[in-house]
Amino acid sequence: MSSNSPKTKTDVEDxxxxxxxxxxxxxxxxxxxxxxxxxxVDSIRRYLALKLGFYDLTEPSAPVEKVLDEVTFDGVVxxxxxxxxxxxxxxxxxxxxxxxxxxxxxxPVSGLYHNLQKYNLxxxxxxxxxxxxxxxxxxxxxxxxELFPGNFKPTISHYFIRLLHEKGLLLRHYTQNIDTLERGxxxxxxxxxxxxxxxxxxxxxxxxxxYSVEFMKEKIFSDQIPICTxxxxxxKPDIVFFxxxxxxxxxxxxxxxxxxxxxxxxxxxxxxVQPFASLVDMVPDWCPRLLINREKAGQRFFLLRxxxxxxxxxxxxxxxxxxxxxxxxxxxxxxxxxxxxADRLGWGDELRALVAAEHARLESEGNxxxxxxxxxxxxxxxxxxxxx
Length: 388
Ligand SMILES: [Zn+2]
Prior knowledge:
Zn(2+) binds at residues 204, 207, 228, 231. Keywords: Metal-binding, NAD, Transferase, Zinc. It comes from Eumeta variegata. It holds the Pfam family SIR2. Helices cover 30% and strands 11% of the residues. It is of the alpha/beta class. It has 2 domains: 67-99 and 155-194 and 246-365 and 377-388, Rossmann fold (3-Layer(aba) Sandwich); 103-151 and 197-239, 2-Layer Sandwich (SIR2/SIRT2 'Small Domain'). The strands form 2 sheets. Strands 3-2-1-7-8-9 form a 6-stranded parallel beta sheet, sandwiched between helices. A 3-stranded antiparallel beta sheet has the order 5-4-6. Helix 5 packs across helix 11 (348-365) and helix 10 crosses helix 11 (348-365). Zinc ion is lined by residues 204, 206-207, 209, 228, 230-231, 233.
């Protein structure tokens, strides 16, 4: 709409009773005023959604369809096997990569933060802060040597996501991980959204020249700070540091995808990091949501819900209790959960064969040997402190 066009109705304005002044001869609390209040709430909600760039097309006042025959793991399996499930979104956190031996950043004992003291950082997370990096990139690149992709094999969970894609069911895979194991597992690039960025590409912080993973690997493993070939700028992997925006692709895909989603699978994430954690609220109100994780997560307003202050389908995270009509938790190891799901879907042997063949291929290509020695045999240990 151009700025000089005549006043036109928009979503933000009250869509009824143009010729009636607000509240004219109408007692508060009447049906009319309640309808108007509700419309106002909806209008504000739509306005905020538009302003924030999220187009929420759900009608909160419409009755919500219950699509699962039973709100259980088997109910979810039946839904995925059915005709109406065509657009699955997967959300993944560190839990899908831990069995590959990728260190957990935040674990207090084995996690990387715990092992960063030798770098004299003002605080552990400074190693991922853009301001600190600009002043002193060396600690990050020493750490990057440990985290560098290519030294780890994708897990059963990664190959399960690839199977979802090959079955034509994967709308998109959103990952918080920066380990590039999704790419390593052969999931099509256009199906992946790396919400926290990736090691796969890098850019000069000054002139924005792009660099390949090979360039970075050579520099990092020879203990050099990667410097741009065109200017004196430092080259930084495109992982999102504290103080940086999420990738534009994340915003773009979120707007396109979530209202189309008819099955959300959250894997190996504690859903504590925003805005990733709020994505669970962006699917339609009826859309089933399955959590595959070691413990329950994402119940942001658990107490409010328990007190009856918010209803079953209000935005506010997952509802993992007896009242749930669409949320299911499959607690336990992520790989076990994915294999279990594949088995029940009838794809179990296919998944086992895919994992075995791909792991054999990666091993034969010889790209998996860590600079610190051969990869350990299964099960991989947590990243030992002495390597840092
Ligand atoms: Zn440059």
